[in-house]
Amino acid sequence: MREYIRKSSGIPASVYTRVKALLKDYDRMQRMRANLLYGTPPPVNGHSSGASNPTEQKAIKLAVISSELDTIDQICMLLRGEYSDKTLEDFDPIKAYWQYDYFNYQHIRTEKNLNGPSTRTWHRYKDKFTLLIAQKLNFF
Asked: Among 9, 32, 136, 138, which is least packed, fewest CB within 10 Å?
């Protein structure tokens, strides 16, 4: 399925795609970081992987993954704080990025507005999330 990138977002398509891929890979990167921190199983055949310095390779990989995950977590905390007066306590910014229904459900209803936010509001939220991550990771 083709992803429509709004022109009004001001985000280049390549940057939008990179951030989207990073968010899609969030859970796998968390598991990978945990494996690197708390040990990985030994090689199946008892031989090393051929890396000249496996500790250095792990440290480099861990640094890259941790910086990306920390950036995403910081932006999530920022958005939770920004949307705290409009959403329920257990609002998950990443889940809201992927699902409009979740984004809509998490918003607190008032007597004036029983319908919740529109899809347009959700797209603006996604654009803001994408832009903040891209700026923090110096994607453009």
From this structure: 138
Residue with tokens 């199946």: 44
pLDDT tens digits, one per residue of 20-47: 999 999 999 999 999 988 875 556 565 5
State residue 133's pLDDT score. Answer: 96
For residue 115, give Cα distances in angstroms to 70, 96, 119. Answer: 34, 17, 11
Helix, coil or strand: residue 87: strand
DSSP conformational letter for 122: H
Helices 13-24 & 26-38, crossing angle to 10 degrees? 50
Q: What residue type is assigned to position 50 of the chain?
A: G
Three-state SS for 107?
A: strand
What is the length of the chain? 140
Distance, in Å, from the CA atom of 136 to the CA atom of 21, rounded to the nearest integer, reads 16
What predicted TM-score, i.e. pTM, was given to this entire model? Answer: 0.82
